[in-house]
Amino acid sequence: MQWETVIGLEIHTQLATQSKIFSGAPIAFGAEPNTQACAIDLGLPGVLPVLNEQAVTFAVRFGKSIEAEIAPRSIFARKNYFYPDLPKGYQISQYELPVVGKGQVEIVLDDGTVKTIGVTRAHLEEDAGKSLHEDFQGFTGIDLNRAGTPLLEIVSEPDMRSPQEAVAYAKKIHQIVRYIGISDGNMQEGSFRMDANVSVRPVGQEAFGTRAEIKNVNSFRFLEKAIQFEVERQIDLIEGGGTVVQETRLYDADKDETRSMRTKEEANDYRYFPDPDLLPVEIDADFLARAIADLPELPDAKRARFQADYGLSEYDAGLLTASRELADYFETVARDSGEPKLAANWVSGELMAALNKTEVELDASPVSASMLAGLIRRIQDGTVSGKLAKQVFEGMWNGGGDADQVIESQGLKQITDTGAIEAMIDAIIAANPAQVEQYRSGKDKIFGFFVGQTMKQSGGKANPAQVNEILKRKLQR
Amino acid sequence: MQNKSIAQLAADLRLRTYSSVELTKHYLERIARLDPRLNSFVTVAADSALVAAERADQMLKSGEAGPLTGIPIAHKDIFCTQGIKTSCGSRMLDNFVAPYDATVVEKLAAAGAVVLGKTNMDEFAMGSSNETSFYGPVKNPWDETKVPGGSSGGSAAAVAARLCAVATGTDTGGSIRQPAALCGITGIKPTYGRCSRWGMIAFASSLDQAGVMARSAADAAFLLDEMAGFDSRDSTSANVPVPDYVDALDDGIKGLKIGLPKEYFGDGLDSRVAAVIQDAIKEYERLGAEIVEISLPNSPLSVPVYYVVAPAECSSNLARFDGVRYGHRCENPEDLEDLYKRSRAEGFGAEVQRRIMIGAYVLSAGYYDAYYLKAQKIRHLIADDFKRAFEQVDVIMGPTSPTTAFPIGDKMDDPVSMYLNDIYTIATNLAGLPGMSIPVAPVDGMPVGLQIIGNYFDEARLLNVAHQFQHATHWHQAAPAGFE
């Protein structure tokens, strides 16, 4: 039988606010356990939550970025369950009336087709603390630094049909939240965590199969592998005469498998109800306008503009808009050099390769955008050849100063003096009479030999156009 | 000294007739001598009280004193007090000392009030008789075989017995007004949101409100002046200007329109209580008020609605008491579930457990719509009844409680009969309105309270209306025998 995979994602993205969503405690990562938790985060008796306005602003920015409805009035609810790292015995979340309603994003599939993925909703909630099961000899340590950290939970429609689509969607959301500056998206630190709802059904069947939820995946690669494993597991199970049970599963990256965490029967009844400690969140036109006033150009718009304004291919435009920082870098190079296509080639080629190789982040790149633009200008005005420019780039990368300084110090300036080139060529012609004869008898291909010899002689510095022109002229005779 | 009003005490302190330290020692001596009979205090904070009194005396000397400077008060043990145990009447918090003051505590401390200690209460404010306290029942100073009412029974008994000048209380369904009525004192529950809930241990967040238990409306006005106001730490506190409650006390009440809801004078009301309430209303007529019969048609639903909404909220509010971070923890838990179950089973008393279970039930999947959601809808109807009534009248009056204080132990096995004690007080909490109880003529030597309900943020009028009655009568001055 042919099977179709159905995937929906729930993404928890940590918001880059100064303080927690309902208290003034800081949210910095990596502090000593329980040093960033105040009385409110600890759930002491008598404390009350006060909503962080910045978190609402961020949620609104996200909503606008996915063309979603922003609820003029949304409600915080309590999700009740007992766990030691949940200090109040309930999590403050949004249930019936989330701040962000239906929206959508577009993803580009491998074959270049564009697919629209629906976003059901996005709601604000607080994170729980962390349980530390090691190092306490039979006890569990509780770190409440993370308790109360603001999260935006972004829930998709079950619109994805393959692990690759799920990854493309997750990357898109990751790209958006970083573009609009509401999250650092740091996956190692847990700022971007994904839950995947996965089911399979026979191709052509309309009803969804029973789904399993894979919890807390924190890398795109693991997301793809976890879904892949889960799809195969479900198909094997059904084809072997079994049935899929609705359950929560965990992905074990070491073993590359998912395993059951709890079944539906064991699931909590969360007893949601509106939190009486918090007023409804009212978003009026003023608040909305302020929240989105400085919303930057979004990736899709930027990509389209790069294609239109700079004549880039869809592929290059997509590559160069992957992050806002990269897009800004490219635009600076393009603008300062006046050569957008060369800029695109250099940024997506040499620069990216160097960054990847050395595992350096763009903002720490030794070659700044204006330095790269300077190099491109030198290529353009003939000071340095395209080939030697790579050497100049390396020199800049290794701290040799800007393009002009590297060209100067390494003597990479292109030779454009016609007399000097002619002298070199004369010598080569004189030294290779047999090849000259071959050329003159009609063997055009040998021309390359003379170009090669000249370039070798000049240490690669001779201007290729001039070399061509002079060689042609001299060999004709 | 113990019979003087706050205005008199403040004047005496200014004239150095006696110092705050002397006044504080006087009350501490009375507590030590008399409270063993009543059990109205959970904690007496003598040392910190004397330190505060000395500081108050300094302020009095330097002329920086306000009307409450040096006045000995008591806080219901539901308000967090930095450095003094806050038990909430529960074994669960028998070891809990908060690292912060409640806003109400902070404000009264800033006004110079001296805290004598923390008063007994029904466990987590759940009860109408003060019998659910982990620290044992409080006795009514008018008859020590009877209950003082609840949940602010300790504050009510302490004020009635002159063990403090005035006390704080909280009122979720009548917990200030009913014990005030049963102990013959004046209690005011302000509008929901008038006083900050920060640092006040939550029972039912949408109903809880801090207020005052005093010997007169004038004394209550002095305290409320300092307690009321917006607090950025409480999202539900009202950002509405606070008038000067003391200033408004002496306004005349000629032409005041008093609404009498017919539902508050029907079956279930003790006829002798009804009679003294009617006498009090006649007194108001003599003072120039006009009586209008009104109807609050949905008020019979207020008790069932309350016993859905309040338990629902409490089941969630009390989830934090899990034995993990503070409070009672069972010995040698086998595993996490055992830790939760035994810590909570041991830490909470029967009434608290009953309400948590009711609350969990009404919020659970499949029952939410039928109970919680429906109760919220009826809650709106109850508020609408009052809204219509206040288009016709200025205040609403009726009995605070259907009977006088009942014997200790009488209703502990019959929760529904206990819950019906609050039949006249609960609706105001559901609507968020302010309400008062003031003493009128007693029945068989036991106090009776007249309830006065006002429109939103109309506390100044309530206190004024109460004060005018107390100006013309003497019921509020009566002291229980042995505590004069």
From TrEMBL, chain A:
Its EC number is 6.3.5.-. GO terms for molecular function: asparaginyl-tRNA synthase (glutamine-hydrolyzing) activity; ATP binding; glutaminyl-tRNA synthase (glutamine-hydrolyzing) activity; transferase activity. It comes from the Bacteria. Keywords: ATP-binding, Ligase, Nucleotide-binding, Protein biosynthesis, Transferase. InterPro entries: Asn/Gln-tRNA_amidoTrfase_suB/E (IPR017959), Asn/Gln-tRNA_Trfase_suB/E_cat (IPR006075), Asn/Gln_amidotransferase (IPR018027), Asn/Gln_tRNA_amidoTrase-B-like (IPR003789), GatB (IPR004413), GatB_C_1 (IPR042114), GatB_Yqey_C_2 (IPR023168), Gln-tRNA_amidoTrfase_suB_CS (IPR017958). Residues 328-475 form the Asn/Gln amidotransferase domain. GO terms for biological process: glutaminyl-tRNAGln biosynthesis via transamidation; translation. SMART domains: GatB_Yqey. The keyword Repeat does not apply. It catalyses: L-aspartyl-tRNA(Asn) + L-glutamine + ATP + H2O = L-asparaginyl-tRNA(Asn) + L-glutamate + ADP + phosphate + 2 H(+); L-glutamyl-tRNA(Gln) + L-glutamine + ATP + H2O = L-glutaminyl-tRNA(Gln) + L-glutamate + ADP + phosphate + H(+). Heterotrimer of A, B and C subunits. Allows the formation of correctly charged Asn-tRNA(Asn) or Gln-tRNA(Gln) through the transamidation of misacylated Asp-tRNA(Asn) or Glu-tRNA(Gln) in organisms which lack either or both of asparaginyl-tRNA or glutaminyl-tRNA synthetases. The reaction takes place in the presence of glutamine and ATP through an activated phospho-Asp-tRNA(Asn) or phospho-Glu-tRNA(Gln). Belongs to the GatB/GatE family. GatB subfamily. This is Aspartyl/glutamyl-tRNA(Asn/Gln) amidotransferase subunit B. It comes from Thiorhodococcus drewsii AZ1. The gene is gatB.
Automatic annotation (TrEMBL), chain B:
NCBIfam families: gatA. Allows the formation of correctly charged Gln-tRNA(Gln) through the transamidation of misacylated Glu-tRNA(Gln) in organisms which lack glutaminyl-tRNA synthetase. The reaction takes place in the presence of glutamine and ATP through an activated gamma-phospho-Glu-tRNA(Gln). SUPFAM superfamilies: Amidase signature (AS) enzymes. Keywords: ATP-binding, Hydrolase, Ligase, Nucleotide-binding, Protein biosynthesis, Transferase. This is Glutamyl-tRNA(Gln) amidotransferase subunit A. The gene is gatA. Belongs to the amidase family. GatA subfamily. Its EC number is 6.3.5.7. It holds the Pfam family Amidase. GO terms for molecular function: ATP binding; glutaminyl-tRNA synthase (glutamine-hydrolyzing) activity; hydrolase activity; transferase activity. The keyword Ligase applies. GO terms for cellular component: glutamyl-tRNA(Gln) amidotransferase complex. Gene3D superfamilies: Amidase signature (AS) domain. It comes from Thiorhodococcus drewsii AZ1. Heterotrimer of A, B and C subunits. It is an enzyme of class 6 (ligase). Residues 22-463 form the Amidase domain. It catalyses: L-glutamyl-tRNA(Gln) + L-glutamine + ATP + H2O = L-glutaminyl-tRNA(Gln) + L-glutamate + ADP + phosphate + H(+). The keyword Oxidoreductase does not apply. The active site is at residues 76, 151, 175. It comes from the Bacteria. GO terms for biological process: translation.
